[in-house]
Design a protein that fits this description.
heterodimer; A: 249 residues; two-stranded parallel sheet; 9 helices; 10 strands; 23% strand; globular; B: 175 residues; mainly alpha
Chain lengths: 249, 175
């Protein structure tokens, strides 16, 4: 049986380790359980602190504009290509510039304008650390803290919530959750201040998702990363999450 | 003609790979250097080197560690080129002050300032683990350390950060 010192040394090096021996100790030791909750809360802050907003093809992100994340200096993502081209001569440069225009145009057309979906995708790009595949749930108290202001709680059935954060989005604090599903980690944003008239699928910048209306409670955004999950599965995950939400106000 | 089409396809794939990894590479370079401008320069040089050496990347699944290695070398080269003598942490923090203060929550801003103050040997494995999602074995391979040494550094990194942030560390274990 692992002792408390060994347990704490281990989780301070690997807070999200799902080793059964660690879980067994945590469940049998109240102090270590409390210690772990504290540590995971700190870890959540650490993940956010390390998240820096990056310039898009259009410049700064919505997140950096809001000052929520630490922005890097805006610079075209194609700078390195131009630099490469200049070293290879004008012909290569011309080819690169043309390619740059094609890519930039693709990015420009690919981003759904200033739509809600675009802002959701931009927000997700600012928090890449949330997409970890893990079986370790966030502490219940931390999850309740995040959900409380939106007047909801999650009943069982949604899946393991591995990440919970209260994020600034379009001027409001909104719950940002990552739920582990059979299709991998899925991000959920509860947008009580954003109403949509009908479900909207989107597939942009490597994120596939859906925004569904929630009558009386705004909308719900569900995103998967990569193109592996088909839209039907995304929609069924959204349905499942909606079923698990219990509105308290 | 067929070879040219194949070559173009390969280059396009590599370019797409670079674009998809660029955000992670920039974030890593930023926390490595604690300097936005330097991070962008390092990533740019990394992309150039990667482009020239793309044939040595045999498995796209291994691209992230491959790029990380190039970034770390480029960062080391930037020291050789610019001959930095000392790093004044307070000066670094002051230089990024507006950005650090831009965080909406005070505790996140404090944590960022604490990360700036953390020694490189602790900050680097922590960033690889938390931000890049590397396992202990992957960090050990990247930093040329034993697994035990990596775990010790991760432990110390978090302990120091908690102390710097004024967290209650009374329950923390001693080494």
């Amino acid at each position: 049986m692992m002792d408390c010192t060994r347990y704490r040394q281990t989780v301070m090096a690997r807070p999200r380790d799902s080793d059964p021996a660690l879980r067994e100790h945590r469940e049998s030791c109240r102090d270590c359980n409390f210690f772990t909750e504290q540590l995971l809360r700190f870890e959540s802050h650490l993940e956010r602190a390390l998240g820096v907003a990056l310039p898009t093809a259009q410049g700064e992100t919505a997140a950096s504009r809001s000052g929520r994340v630490l922005p890097l200096r805006a610079k075209s993502p194609l700078t390195w290509e131009r630099s490469l081209a200049s070293r290879k001569g004008w012909l290569a440069m011309a080819a690169s510039v043309v390619l740059g225009f094609v890519v930039a145009a693709g990015l420009w057309l690919g981003i759904p304008g200033s739509s809600l979906a675009a802002d959701v995708v931009t927000h997700m790009r600012g928090e890449p650390q949330a997409w970890r595949r893990t079986e370790v749930p966030v502490p219940d108290a931390a999850l309740q803290d995040v959900l409380r202001d939106s007047h909801l709680r999650l009943a069982g059935g949604a899946g393991v919530v591995s990440y919970a954060n209260s994020c600034r989005f379009r001027g409001y604090q909104v719950p940002h959750l990552v739920i582990q599903t059979e299709a991998g980690p899925v991000t959920v944003m509860v947008l009580v201040h954003e109403s949509v008239s009908k479900s909207m699928h989107f597939d942009e910048e490597g994120y596939r998702g859906i925004i569904v209306p929630v009558p009386g409670h705004g909308s719900l955004a569900v995103l998967t990363r990569g193109g592996a999950t088909d839209p039907k599965t995304v929609a069924s995950i959204a349905d499942r999450v909606l079923d698990a939400i219990v509105w308290t106000g | 003609m067929k070879d040219q089409v194949g070559g173009n396809h390969k280059q396009a794939r590599f370019q797409a790979l670079c674009q998809s990894l660029r955000p992670d590479l920039l974030r890593f370079a930023f926390w490595l250097s604690r300097d936005r401008a330097l991070a962008e320069d390092v990533v740019q040089e990394t992309m150039l080197r990667a482009w020239k050496a793309q044939d040595s990347l045999l498995d796209e699944a291994a691209a992230k560690p491959w790029f990380m290695t190039i970034i770390r070398r480029e960062y080391a080269r930037s020291f050789e080129r610019k001959r930095f003598v000392t790093v004044d942490v307070d000066e670094l923090v002051a230089r990024e002050e507006p950005m650090l203060a831009a965080a909406e929550e005070q505790n996140i801003a404090e944590l960022r300032a604490a990360l700036f103050k953390l020694q490189d040997e602790y900050r680097e494995p922590l960033v690889l683990q938390v931000l890049m999602g590397f396992s202990t074995a992957e960090i050990a391979r990247e930093l040329n350390l034993s697994g035990a040494a990596v775990l010790t550094r991760l432990f110390r990194a978090r302990k120091q950060l908690r102390v710097l942030c004024g967290e209650d560390t009374s329950l923390d274990p001693q080494e």
